[in-house]
Amino acid sequence: MLPSLTIGIEEEYQTIDPETRDLRSHIHSEIIAKGKRIMEERIKAEMHQSVVEVGTGVCKNIKEARRDIRKLRHDMINLARENGLLLAAAATHPFADWRAQEIYPDERYLKVVEDLQLVARSNLVFGLHVHIGIQDRETTVHLMNQARYFLPHLLALSANSPFWLGTKTGLKSYRCKVFDKFPRTNIPDTFSSFSEFENFVNLLIKTNCIDNAKKIWWDIRPHPFFNTLEFRVCDIPMRLDETIALAALIQATIAKLYKLHSRNQGFRIYGRSLLMENKWRAARYGLDGSLIDFGKETEVNERELIAEYLEFVDDVLDELDSRAEVNYIHEILKSGNGAERQLKAFEETGDLKRVVDYIVEQTKVGVFEAESVSVANS
After folding, report:
1. pLDDT tens per residue across span 168-185
2. How would you label 270-306 residue by residue, b for 16+ Cβ within 10 Å and e otherwise?
3. Sign of the C-alpha dihedral computed for residues 266, 271, 274 and 275 taken in this order
4. What CA–CA distance (Å, rounded) separates 16 from 105?
5. What is the value of pTM for the model shown?
6. What is the dihedral of CA 65, 365, 150, 195, to 10 degrees?
7. In which residue ranges of the chain is pLDDT below 70?
């Protein structure tokens, strides 16, 4: 069965106090309840009360996904403002202290906190999840095995969390180092078949490690309830265009890997230990470091590897009608990922509150332009 290659995007946002620029709970302003009147089930709370998640519907292509996530960002920015808050898209807050943030009073999240204790309470991070529709579960597992290779590159492009508790961490993505304290995270092992994956999940359930497969939080996973392959490795980017570029690149990656798979030409599979070396480098240096080219057994500048990555998927972009969206990756390479831009804003101002202001402004970029044009033409 040919995969549909549909796209679903989930973004996690910070709700910000406009005076202190610190994180502030949205629970008293009832943003989730108010949001459901506008966005229905596309908005939901997350574990901490200063986190809001939105998710698109099932989008047939990247153009539809862009319209959907732009509308969600638009509505969330307006909803936050109407309730005395600002909205920010960054994978960690520059100076907020997780110890001052309350857990959302939902039975599911309280159970996670009970199970994981301080590990859960300190997990104040914000991600981007991208789902690609693959109806055949056997194919999903085979493509997941191959797509693992690209996860460090996607992390380097999306890296947007250089600060933690008011400190420059020295990493471009500190989010992934906070999150990997959870069990069942990072890059998964390979599975020979979907039944092997199912047996693994069933063993964890049988032995009371988990109650369902949603508590497997790998960087990439077959979604337990949808016929999708879910990419969870990315920091949430600041700009809408960055989110769309990453989603388009992820879709193109699966399209290209399926093309090879259908010709019995599967992409070479590398062991988890090697891939984790590259993930560390991506988290530490972002686009500024070198990753390992395992085929050549040498280090290669990450920007060169991204260029090779774009060349790898080039022959599927026109059939996906996503060339323009993927081309925005060149803009990320030119202007820097979110972490680089946050650090530059801090170097220019020396003030982490100004960095928050910068993130808030970047979160709006590309969201209101269409509205402005229609007003100007009326």
Report:
1. 999 999 999 999 999 999
2. beeeebeebbbbbbbbbbbbbbbeeeeeeeeebeebb
3. positive
4. 20
5. 0.94
6. -40
7. 370-378
